[in-house]
Amino acid sequence: MRVSLCLALAAVLLAQAAQAQVRLPENRPGGKLLLTGGVSALEGAGGGGLATWAVTTGYGAQDGVGGNVHATYVNLPDYELTAYGAAVAFWDRVELSYTRQEFDTGATGAALGLGQGFTFRQDVYGLKVKLFGDAVYASDTWLPQVAVGVQHKVADQGAVIGAVGGEDDEGTDLYVAATKLFLAESLLVSGAVRFTNANQTGLLGFGGDQEADRTAQFEGSVGYLLSPNWVVGAEYRTRPDNLGFAEEDDAADVFVAWAPNKAVSVTAAYVDLGSVATFEDQRGLYLSLQVGF
Q1: Distance (Å, whole) CA 187 – CA 136
Q2: Is residue 165 a contact partner of residue 248, using CB atoms and an 8 Å limit?
Q3: Burial class (CB in 10 A: 0-12, 13-18, 19+), 256
Q4: How many structural domains is the chain composed of?
Q5: Residue 162 to residues 68, 117, 158, 200, 245: CA-CA distances in angstroms?
Q6: Nearest to 241 by CA among 165, 172, 187
Q7: CA dist., res. 265 & res. 87, Å (int)
Q8: Is 21 exposed, middle or buried (0-12, 13-18, 19+ CB in 10 A)?
Q9: Using one digit for the tens of pLDDT, what is the confidence trace for 204-251?
Q10: What are the residues whose beta carbons fall under 8 Å from the beta carbon of 73, sequence distance 6 or more?
Q11: Rounded to an integer, what distance in angstroms lies between the CA atom of residue 40 and that of residue 288?
């Protein structure tokens, strides 16, 4: 049922994108500016590290294609998270993405009764469609770029998820995002509302004994362009707290991103995930590499 819903939503969004493509103006000379496609978020969509933006990934302009492969590593006191995948965008309008997340419990797995180095894995399939606006070039208006998206997530540890109170090992997030770059001020502002019941982005399943249904959660980013190649900023992401056995806190980071050219970008951040599976103060280093066009 959830897969059918995801496919139906994807079909509707793609139909809207095809209709919008007919009305697109001529391609802008030079395409996108450096870093304006964002980096790769933990779930694979174009944006910041924690927050999804309304922009599409890569540097393909309105009659072209852009894409990337990406890898992310997060080192926390009691856990390690890696994510890797690819994304492609068509006409600066439609983005498709895939990411595999792996959450290694290390020595903490033994303390939780799961075993040394027990690893949770999750596949994330994403679709984003730009509805209207232009985050960069519509500098004569306050209207942001707005996009909607869907992410279907499949976790691999259904037995453990059920044992800790999770309702399901498969779920779908829906979101709407708005992003604006104020070129004169070198300032990027982005916000999104995500409708989700994912526990720890879905690695611990979906829904729980405290809340089963999707709730609205906020994702926000602010970035300052030090130069065309460097951006510094901060992000904040609220998260549902569905499981009674372990409180889930909101997440935040401060980051710096560097793009020497349009083929490569590197992001480093200090991230605070709060409490994760009963272990408090999960703060550490976030590193992400993106290679694309």
Answers
A1: 11
A2: no
A3: middle
A4: 1
A5: 35, 20, 6, 15, 12
A6: 165
A7: 14
A8: middle
A9: 999 999 999 999 999 999 999 999 999 999 999 999 999 998 899 999
A10: 80, 81, 82, 286, 287, 288
A11: 8
pTM over 0.85: yes
Distances in Å between the Cα of 260 and the Cα atoms of 8, 125, 224, 287 are: 40, 29, 17, 16
Identify residue 122 by its one-letter amino acid code: Q
What is the number of other CB atoms lying within 10 angstroms of the CB of residue 261?
A: 8
- Provide the H-helix boundaries in the chain: 2-22, 108-111, 158-163
**DSSP letter assigned to residue 123:** E
C-alpha radius of gyration, the chain, whole number: 19
**Residue 27 burial by Cβ neighbours in a 10 Å radius (0-12, 13-18, 19+):** middle
CATH number at residue 227: 2.40.160.40
Expressed as residue numbers, the domain containing 242 is 2-292
